[in-house]
């Protein structure tokens, strides 16, 4: 059995926060995927972990020395309704490792069978949804968005019952931690303030160790809450700037670390629409694209409620101090969103004074420029990813040449509707860099292309790859798509099919599912 150097602080330091449990044995484990770059990053021997014999490890039939499999306890608001006990119903934390950069990382199974927290399900998972976790997680990582990642997927040799019989699989997931807003809610709902304090101390030590230098426990807790909120503001801005829709932003799916987690009913938007929803279970649009920042703040308010007794002994003062953080969240989000939009618009760098009336007026004008661009995409039903990407071509060529060779203009049903906005944008570039508006800006275009991907996980391509793997045992489409997703900013002719949106009629009826 390959060695894995576990150091399991959660199991060791947080007794009562979990239940020891073993994965269910499976009849015929077979390794479908091993993330070799991630294995090397974790300091693991990827060659030893990719042999046929290693499938027994990735499916849960054998455990490496030092593993302490536990099911973690947590609660959560699901579509606004509170469930006091959710927990790892089909997941197990195997343990923690220190990676090559000195970061502590969780290694966990998903789909390894029922646990004491299971709520009527079989605790198993199917090949398609687990390979989906690979594709979306690796795409997010390549896009520079904090995310959990798949280390391995093993087929189990058994069938699981969903809407039809499907081949079973176990995912091995890596995360900065699996601490969630719902983890705090579990103990707060039971009025176990000492456990909430213990959990907060653990989370601070793990994710914000510099805060341990703050002598005042209330101030330390408040600063920790502020750090979590800032991470979420930055994360949500990145989601919005690539058109990502999580689909199930329950409080048990919001991490304390600020990583994206759980890629069940998620999707990437194609034609820009603020109210886009793809999740089959989001009937009211609670987690629609444009709602995501508001839901993040709502979730953070639920975290604040758990921390109030630690923030101040006087309840009203605790509420006021936590509310200050929640009220600051929209500003943090807008700042991060604007920073990303400026990069996508070719406006990296100061360009103008960073403070004072002129800067404030220009910031308002830039917000209007970005907002009008999005309104134009919405009105013209333009593909979000292609529009941002092809805007860089307009900077690369200069106005006259761009008009002749444009990839952007054909995206618009009424190309003339684009021209007034392009003129404003070129004037803004001129103000920013001092060149004439119509000048070619190849360096600006290059930086814009590093902010706007050419390839995202197009929903129809993901479904094609998963169907081939699940229905026919053919992993070639999955592997080919994964290769393309790992280099999203580079235009390779052989990847061109992965950059094309689905036909509008396909996107119109596209739905995603939880995979449970």
Features:
alpha+beta, 516 residues, 12 strands, two-stranded antiparallel sheet, single chain, six-stranded antiparallel beta sheet, 18 helices
Return the average pLDDT rounded to an integer.
Answer: 95
Rg, please? 24 Å
Give the CA-CA distance, first to last residue.
Answer: 30 Å
Largest sheet: 6 strands, antiparallel
Number of strands: 12
Sum up the overall morphology in one term.
globular
Q: So how many helices?
A: 18
Computed structural class? alpha+beta
- Please report which band the strand proportion falls in: under 5%, 5-15%, 15-25%, 25-35%, 35-45% or over 45%: 5-15%
Q: Which residue ranges are poorly predicted, with pLDDT under 50 across at least 5 consecutive positions?
A: none
Order of helices and strands: HEEHHEEEEEEHEEHHHEEHHHHHHHHHHH
Detailed description of the structure:
The chain has 18 helices and twelve strands. The protein is α+β, with helices and mostly antiparallel strands. A hairpin with a 2-residue loop joins strand 4 (76-78) and strand 5. Helix 5 packs antiparallel against helix 6 (193-207), helix 7 packs antiparallel against helix 8 (292-311) and helix 15 runs antiparallel to helix 16.
